[in-house]
């Protein structure tokens, strides 16, 4: 068993030096949502793992729900991530970007000007608050239900972020976060998805956005692995 754990593993076209995977961990160290040298040092120190999955990284200004979480939807952000991928690659590690859109788990004061709190449906939280720098914990506002144009845009945002991550950020692959109450799972769950169009109702419809995102990301980065994070329930 020990030999298997520390033996190389082919993950698609990516060769891992061992079978140890470092799970994502939100750290809130990205000042102005920009990946930086502090983050590169953190991931570089952990490059002995065969594969690192980064902290949740937003594919959209609308997905920056927590304070100081990174994005990868601009060239500047992707270049910031290159500091991290270089640090990991220098030590023989491999690293995937986890794409996480927070959806309704958000607060406008954590988001850039013009961004919105979006969700599949307007379902209020009960007694849940969001931390905001300098203001403490604030009530989470009711999200705006997404129109079809919003859904089309978010699919394109995931695809563009995946391309930026690989082509500029230097990542070895990406993971799509479709769990833990964030946007994609908000569409999957009948508790948060009350839609009556092609993205709501039966399970096939509630899974449609995840399918659309997967297909768009795979089409955009045809040679790199694409993972999907789900949870048992």
Give, in spatial order, the strands making up the sheet with the most strands: 3-4-5-10-11
Largest sheet: 5 strands, parallel
- Please report the total strand number as a whole number: 11
What is the number of helical segments per DSSP (H or I, 4+ residues)? 7
The overall pLDDT, averaged over residues, is 96
Describe the oligomeric state of these chains in a short phrase. Answer: single chain
- Give the termini separation: 30 Å
Spell out the helices and strands N to C.
Answer: HEEEHEHEEEEEHEHHHE
Kindly estimate the percentage of residues that lie in beta strands according to DSSP.
15-25%
Shape descriptor reads globular
Could you say which structural class the secondary elements and strand pairing correspond to? alpha/beta
Name the helicity range.
25-40%
The rounded Rg comes to 18 Å
Low-confidence stretches: none
Based on the model shown, name its key terms:
single chain, five-stranded parallel β-sheet, 7 helices, globular, 233 residues, 11 strands, alpha/beta
Would you give an account of this structure?
The chain is 30% helix and 18% strand. The model has no long low-confidence stretch (mean pLDDT 96). With 233 residues, it is of the alpha/beta class. It contains 7 helices and 11 strands.
Walk me through the topology.
Blueprint lengths: L1 H4 L3 E3 L2 E3 L4 E2 L14 H8 L6 E7 L17 H15 L4 E6 L18 E2 L9 E4 L3 E4 L4 E2 L2 H20 L5 E5 L5 H6 L14 H4 L1 H13 L5 E4 L4
Helix pairs in contact: 2-3, 4-7
């Amino acid at each position: 068993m020990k030999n298997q754990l520390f033996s190389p593993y082919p993950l698609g076209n990516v060769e891992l030096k061992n079978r140890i995977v470092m799970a994502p961990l939100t750290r809130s160290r990205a000042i102005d949502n920009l990946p930086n040298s502090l983050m590169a040092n953190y991931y570089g120190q952990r490059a002995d793992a065969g594969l690192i999955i980064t902290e949740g990284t937003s594919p959209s200004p609308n997905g920056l729900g927590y304070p100081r979480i990174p994005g990868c939807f601009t060239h500047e952000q992707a270049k910031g991530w290159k500091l991290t991928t270089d640090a990991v690659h220098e030590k023989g590690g491999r690293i995937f970007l986890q794409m996480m859109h927070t959806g309704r788990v958000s607060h406008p004061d954590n988001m850039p000007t013009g961004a919105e709190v979006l969700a599949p449906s307007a379902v209020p939280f009960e007694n849940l608050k969001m931390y905001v720098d300098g203001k403490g914990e604030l009530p989470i506002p009711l999200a705006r239900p997404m129109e079809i144009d919003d859904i089309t845009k978010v699919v394109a945002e995931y695809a563009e972020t995946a391309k930026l991550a690989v082509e500029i950020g230097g990542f070895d692959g990406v993971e799509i976060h479709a769990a833990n109450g964030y946007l994609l799972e908000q569409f999957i769950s009948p508790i948060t998805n009350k839609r009556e169009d092609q993205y709501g109702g039966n399970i096939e419809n509630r899974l449609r956005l995840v399918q659309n995102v997967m297909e768009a990301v795979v089409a955009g980065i045809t040679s790199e692995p694409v993972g999907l994070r789900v949870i048992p329930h």
